[in-house]
Amino acid sequence: MTASAAVTAGYTLAAGPVRADVIKTDTSGLTAGDAMIKVSDGEMPGYFARPAGVSNPPVVLVAMEIFGLHEYIKDVTRRLAKLGAFAVAPDYYFRKGDLTKIADMPQLLPIVNSKPDAELLSDLDSTVAWAKSQGGDTSRLGIIGFCRGGRTVWEYAAHSSSLKAGAAFYGPLVDPPNPVWPKSPTQLAGDMKAPVIGLYGEADTGIPVATVEAFKTALAANKKTAEFKIYPAAPHGFHADYRPSYRKDAAEDAWAQMQAWFRKYGVLS
Asked: Which class in CATH covers the domain with range 23-264?
């Protein structure tokens, strides 16, 4: 897919070239669209999808990568709705503008790295409250996230006593020094309040397998419920079907693992 076609289709430029055969999930049987979510200092944009005509669907938060609320994240939201969830992807970087319009990684990274964890967690709590006000069943609350959003899954699992389960796709576990990120997921091992499945790639150059194993050990030492699956030869971003990092077999298995996990812990029926 050419850069202009990718932008027209709603993808981000910062992640690089977009694969021609990206997955496209239709809205048949769904109600889907844009949302405005009340947060502490205004209104946050978001995208939601839910099964049409179904009352009290479970709520699943979708925590995006660093590239903004673009078509891949919206498609994931629709995929979850096809599974019966009221899925919501909040654009929690909105205060800095539309990240999908930024093509330059050196420009993008300082923006996303300046997002305070406290504000992020508050934005997610506000998203849960919005979903409840729209008829979602927040007693069956889940969260799924990719890349930086995978880190967000771990952070939110340590924060929210309402969360039933999470699925973290290749979320970083150890943070670089950052005054607005008080604790990395690994430092929060003892604070986890919900079971999380971690889905990681063996060939992820940014998240060594040793780091995953160390976190797994820390969670077990704290008697926290978590499982990990590490996909042989899979790189970072193996689920991102719009990028060259996509690995079909790993992506499909990880998606199945997420569904089984959410069913086990009562998020999905």
From this structure: alpha beta
